[in-house]
Amino acid sequence: NAGVTQTPKFQVLKTGQSMTLQCAQDMNHNSMYWYRQDPGMGLRLIYYSASEGTTDKGEVPNGYNVSRLNKREFSLRLESAAPSQTSVYFCASRLPGNSYEQYFGPGTRLTVT
Amino acid sequence: KQEVTQIPAALSVPEGENLVLNCSFTDSAIYNLQWFRQDPGKGLTSLLLIQSSQREQTSGRLNASLDKSSGRSTLYIAASQPGDSATYLCAVRKGSNYKLTFGKGTLLTVNP
User: Fold this and answer.
1) pLDDT, block means (10 residues), chain A with 113 residues
2) B104–A59: do the CB atoms touch at under 8 Å?
């Protein structure tokens, strides 16, 4: 099992450019999540998907869109990148059942200039 | 609004020492609490998860305790090693919703 994988690992964008961050998991988990991690702020939830075909806003959804393409894949799109979106982005998926234990990918480090 | 605080923000200890990391949360009505480890430039690795009905969980040299009524959890690391150097994060889940609220972490350095 590769677990949770994310691409790309690093990305530099100019203000106003768009891009999609990709996430995939091979653990047959139903729920998937996107977080951002900023110095001094901790991790904050952007969007989550409880199951294939559903998505919901988290704590900081503005400026982002998501797509749950199938059970394996959950992508995060920045339509018009802003410097405030410079961050490290983590995707996670959740173990089925009542434990709600989450497993994280290695992250994408995004810089918007 | 749930707030999670981790103290200390950074800790440096000599190898072999036993140590305790602290996590406190403002709303005691949690579903569970999860401890993670994060190495520099890497993702989060789940260490231990404690359900609200449990008092502690153990994995190898790690022991996590939970006192829900006082809003506190501790992560005890026995016989620390340089390989334990990392940032340790705790996160709580309230109810059956999907949101984890994270603390800002404790940066642990274990010196050889």
Assistant:
1) 90 97 93 92 91 91 95 96 97 79 91 97
2) no
